[in-house]
Amino acid sequence: MSAPLTREQIAALAALARRAGAAIVDIYRSDNWQLSHKTDDSPITAADLAAHRIIVDGLQQLFPQLPVLSEESEPVSDQQRRSWPRYWLVDPLDGTKEFLAKSGEFTVNIALIEQCQAVFGTVYLPLGDELYQGGEQYGSWAQIAGQQQPLRTRPAPSGCAAAPLVVTASSRHSAAAAERIRAALAARFTTVVRQPLGSSLKLCRIAAGQVDCYPRYGRTGEWDIAAGHAILRGAGGEVLDRRGEPLRYSKKTPYNGAFIAVGDPSLPWWSWLPQPTAKTPSRR
């Protein structure tokens, strides 16, 4: 691995995420969203593009030697992308549907990828002014209401008197699918509670020890979860692919198959859950 980020660089990343968040909130409150759709029919707004420009320009100034790949970047060939040993992976507005629904559960995601791993992440929730940062080499922490606090996952509950197992899923996904997951886990845990959340907040809440797991069966972009994945690893958790192995990046295509994010990676989560049916994109 390369030299770790310095304290000054980490602070600069936090400031950059806050700047992008402020630009998003300005547009959010103006209602001048300029909504359009990309070729895959996913929504994009003026806020996505404003945050993209701020983050890409900022990273290029702070780290001129490193490539930057944003969800809103011009297309880069898979061959070129996979040739980068170290680069920034950005989702300037994670949770555009949450933005459009005015739920407030959208984030700015900035991840450092090295040798196919998410090694450092910054996630910022603009409307709550919640900043999450960290990685496996750094530990993880949050800055909320002006106070910095360490992040640590919790062990999964066990025993009849244990606290409920808290499962999260996207606020926009099928309640029936979420109920199937809850029912499968209820065969193993005394009480299972569903807590829908938007964007990378799901991973951050697991890192904070407030949620236990987040199973995801549908396709996601690598940029959707890389920053939260790094923070979760720094707090003691992991994102596991359908093989039960840590999720990797710089795959053949920049998309993820089924995964589960967990606070307690020692347990055989996939043996308890409905098995994915769709083919998982290659790890290599």
Automatic annotation (TrEMBL):
Catalytic EC class: hydrolase
Q: Where in the cell? A: Cell inner membrane
- Return the Gene3D superfamilies for the record: 3.40.190.80, Fructose-1,6-Bisphosphatase, subunit A, domain 1 (3.30.540.10)
Biological process per Gene Ontology, one example term = phosphatidylinositol phosphate biosynthetic process
- Please give the cofactor(s) recorded in the UniProt entry for this protein: Mg(2+)
Q: How does it sit in the membrane?
A: Peripheral membrane protein
SUPFAM superfamilies according to UniProt = Carbohydrate phosphatase (SSF56655)
* Entries under InterPro entries matching the protein: CysQ, CysQ/Inositol_MonoPase, Inositol_monophosphatase-like, Inositol_monophosphatase_CS
Highest taxon above the source species: Bacteria
Task: Detail which positions bind substrate.
Answer: E71, L93, D94, G95, T96, D224
Q: For this UniProt entry, what's an example GO CC term?
A: plasma membrane
Q: Where does Mg(2+) 2 bind?
A: D91, L93, D94, D224
Q: What is its main location?
A: membrane
Swiss-Prot/TrEMBL keywords: Cell inner membrane, Cell membrane, Hydrolase, Magnesium, Membrane, Metal-binding
Q: Where Mg(2+) 1 is bound, by residue?
A: E71, D91, L93, D94, D224
Which family is this sequence assigned to? Belongs to the inositol monophosphatase superfamily. CysQ family.
Give the protein's function: Converts adenosine-3',5'-bisphosphate (PAP) to AMP.
What HAMAP family does the record tag this protein with?
Answer: CysQ (MF_02095)
- PANTHER family the record matches: 3'(2'),5'-BISPHOSPHATE NUCLEOTIDASE 1
Q: What is this protein called?
A: 3'(2'),5'-bisphosphate nucleotidase CysQ
Naturally occurring in which organism (per UniProt): Gammaproteobacteria bacterium LSUCC0057
Name the gene: cysQ
